Every structure is written in structure tokens, then in C-alpha cells.
Structures
1.
Amino acid sequence: MSSIKLNDFKVQLKIGPFGAMVGREGSEVQVGKGIPGGGQSMIAWVVRDPGDLARRPLRLEEVPEPDPGPGEVRLKVRACGVCRTDLHIAEGELMPPRLPVIPGHQVVGAVDRVGPGVAGIGLRERRGAYWLHSSCGRCPACSRGEENLCPDARFLGFHADGGFAEYVVIPAEYTVPIPDAFCDSQAAPLLCAGIIGYRALRLAELRPGETLALFGFGASAHLVLQVAHHWGCRVVVYTRSRSRQEMARALGAVWSGPPGESPLLADRAITFAPAGWVVLEALKAVRPGGTVAVNAVYMSDVPSFPYRVIYGERTLRTVANVTRKDAAEFMQVAAEVPVTARVVQYPFHQADQALLDLKEGKVDGAAVLLLGR
Ligand SMILES: [Zn+2]
Ligand SMILES: [Zn+2]
């Protein structure tokens, strides 16, 4: 492989199906003259050495194209959502079990190759891939229908290469059809932010007519709000960001404001911010007998707190990963509502910028990478 150092925004590279791709200042694209072994190659964002984004842990590289094995399909990626988990992986707060790894677990693509033994999925069918890449199917958790808790579960963009690439290979059973109601960029954020938000809603045990408090208002929360609203629930939103307070009200929240100011006691709460102190705020904001569901893969320590904060039969639980059932159910519910994602689009070659914007809280809604057709 030869390596080209780009020191100027104006430098253009002719690469694969993207045509001319512009590198950011100082970005280095590994441009190969074919992959050893003679296989095809593709362009992907790769994490080799996780660390602070300032050190640019995510690099655009030419890597071998994946090929589907038995039971797998290959998607030609059309859009991929950018999630806080991708940021945690790039920065090493969630250390991937294998490196290098291609992040991205909200993948919308068209099936372009089908492995042996796959039935019922045709070429060119539009399907989505999400965080759960596979589970063992045999352990006690899988037998209980809790494949999200399977000790051998594998996750996309973490254990297996994800969708910050031209192609991704997934076990066919773990893909979900994309309803026609959604275009590619609308569908992408549904596949993590949406599905896990839906699981959080279910685990929070929200019932029709109840009041739901959301702490943090990013990609997942703004989708959850729309589903809760559809179920006839009132939603209050706690966020410090003025623009997100406004966005929450525009989407139908009955109140939005900073944490600590509690206009009315909620029946259920979901926290999205990766900050432990927010969990306490949420506990204080729910009535006796209420539930707080914590929706975060990574979080700072929860500070110690007086027993009375949780006394009164309040339930505190976490939300971990998703199941195939969550994915299938949510995509149907989302089409029924219908849910509208606030999408901030980035061209594929700006994945690192998307992560930086996410880290700096500049993305109001959901960030999505768009790939060439
Ligand atoms: Zn995610
Ligand atoms: Zn299992």
C-alpha cells in the first residue's frame, strides 16, 4: 500500500465509487494498489489506536471488501448514523475487543450479495443493520428472549466491522427491512437511537396517559418523544441547551428546561446523558412507584445519594443493547407514528467531523453519513 499525506483541503483523490474525495487538512488516506491476495478493496473509516479525537483515531483507509459467509448478507451502504457509542469507541472509553475496527451500527443499505443458506432476502432489498450483530442462541439469556444480554453477543462496529464503509457483512437474521415510509437518511438514526430509545420506553414501563421525563435531548430522546406523544403521554424534557429546549417544545413537549427545575412529577423517566449525577436528578423527578431507565452504554460514576431519593418503591434500571424483536417492533411503530428524525447530514468523508460535532454537542438531532450511490 502506498500512503499519501494530504496537507491541503484542495487536494483531491480519485478513489473508487466516490469519485473525487477531499481530504481534511493533514488527513492521510491509505491508497492501495490492490489488496494483497488480489481481492477487491473498499474505502472505510478505521479505528486502529483509540484515543482523544484531537489525535484523530479515526482514519480513512483502503481495506479489503468483505464477502458474506454462510447465513450472511452483504449490504452496499447508503447511509450510516453516527452515534455517541461510535465516539466512545474512537476515544477508547469503550475499548473494542479487536483492533483495527470499522465503527458504525446504524446502517441502511441495499443487499448486494447473499451468502449460502440465506432464504427470503433478495438482492437490492433495502435493509438495516443495528448494534446487535449476533448472539449465541443457546445460552440462558438467549433462551429467555434476552439476546441483548447474551454473554457471547457480538456488536456491530465493535466486535465486527460496521457501516462507516462502502460495504458491511451481517448475519441475515440480524437485519431488518426498512419501511418505505423512510428515505435512507431518515431511516439511519432509527436503527440505534430509535430502537434503543424504544427499548428504554418499554423498560421504563410507560403507560398511555402517563407523564414521561427525558433527561438529555439528542438523537434518541427526540425520537422517543414522538412515540410517547403518539401513545397519548405528556413529555417533559430536561436539557441545558436552549436550542434543544426549543426543539423539544416544537416536537410537542409540554415543558422543557434545565435539570433541577421540576415543574411536575413524572411517572417515568429516561436518562440519555452519560453523566452519573443526572440519574439522581431523574430519581428526584419521578413519583413514588415510578421508574427511571438509564440509557447509556458508558457513564461517569453515579454519586452516592440519600436513601430517601429512591425510597417509595422507585425503580432504577439500565438499558443494555437491543434484541431483534425491539428492532422489528420499533421499525413498525416508527412507520405508524410516523416518526420524523431531525437529521444533520455529513458526506462520508467527514465522519471525523461528525464525531467532533457530536462530542462538542453541536448536533441538534441525529448525525448521518451519506454514501455515494
Ligand atoms: Zn448507537
Ligand atoms: Zn446467548
2.
Amino acid sequence: MDNVRSDDPMLNERACETCGKVARLFVYSLPGIPMSVGNCKTCTEKCAYPYYIAEGNTNYCLDGIDNAADWWKESVTYKDGRYQTMAEAFGDV
Ligand SMILES: [Zn+2]
């Protein structure tokens, strides 16, 4: 690992945008959302959306969970300390 610099800011641990855990993050874009997020390994594996994105897309872009496609209702966010589907998080249960 001689080519990895310990002062490289890309290698620093930061707070996960979805669950808040301090970890090395994976930066990528999520389906349906044209922006990048920084998620920890667990949130990346769950394909979890940061809550502010989940809320913005559900309540403002879609005007409520009832208007969401099934794939969005089944997608995961992190709210109140646990992973939840959009349907759970936004009341369509
Ligand atoms: Zn996370």
C-alpha cells in the first residue's frame, strides 16, 4: 500500500449521510436521485437513502407515498435509529 497516502482526504473517515456512523464512505448515486451520497458499507449494502433525500423525493417530488412506484415504496431509508422502507417511514403501512 505504498501508493496510499495517509493524508489523502478521500481516505478519512466521515459521518455516513444516511445513518451517521463515522466510517470510510462509498460515494455514488442512488437509483432515481441525480446526486451523489456518501454512505457507510452497511448503508451501501442496503442501498439506503439518506432521510433528507427520502423525504424530499416522497413528500415534495412525488407529493406523498401514495403516488410512489412500488420500487420506491420498497426502498430503504434510515429514520428514528433504524432502517425502514419508504412505505414504513412515510405512513403507507
Ligand atoms: Zn450508514
